[in-house]
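Students often ask why inverse folding is considered easier than folding. One informal answer: many sequences map to the same fold, so there is more than one right answer. In these notes we will look at a single instance of the problem. The structure comes first.
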């Protein structure tokens, strides 16, 4: 069980290091960096490479933002098999809706509890 934790730490850390390098070396903005990481996760899932990474690294691959791209494509492909082209849109929303809803709700609660700056 310890090797599983170690690999999760290493893989998640490498994804984060890659994102930090995009900030520091490539001088990308946070929006560009996040978008690129989501697209990378989506492309990897499109080629069938992200699920084996999740099987290998567990939370090290599901926690970083690349997993959001994976979820979008994975849901779209699953629903497209069952419902055709309409399933592409509904699949993306079906799989990611709970995470997006949670982010909105917890962001709102955080704004109520603390003084937002901006």
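Output (designed amino acids):
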């Amino acid at each position: 069980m310890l090797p599983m934790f170690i690999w999760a730490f290493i893989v998640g850390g490498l994804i984060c290091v890659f994102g930090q390098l995009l900030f520091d070396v490539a001088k990308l903005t946070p929006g560009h960096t996040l978008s690129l990481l989501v697209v990378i996760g989506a492309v990897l899932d499109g080629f069938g490479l992200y699920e084996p990474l999740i099987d290998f690294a567990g939370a090290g691959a599901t926690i970083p933002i690349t997993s959001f791209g994976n979820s979008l494509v994975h849901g779209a492909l699953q629903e497209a098999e069952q419902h055709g082209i309409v399933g592409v849109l509904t699949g993306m929303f079906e799989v990611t809706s709970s995470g997006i809803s949670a982010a909105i709700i917890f962001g709102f609660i955080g704004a109520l509890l603390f003084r937002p700056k901006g």
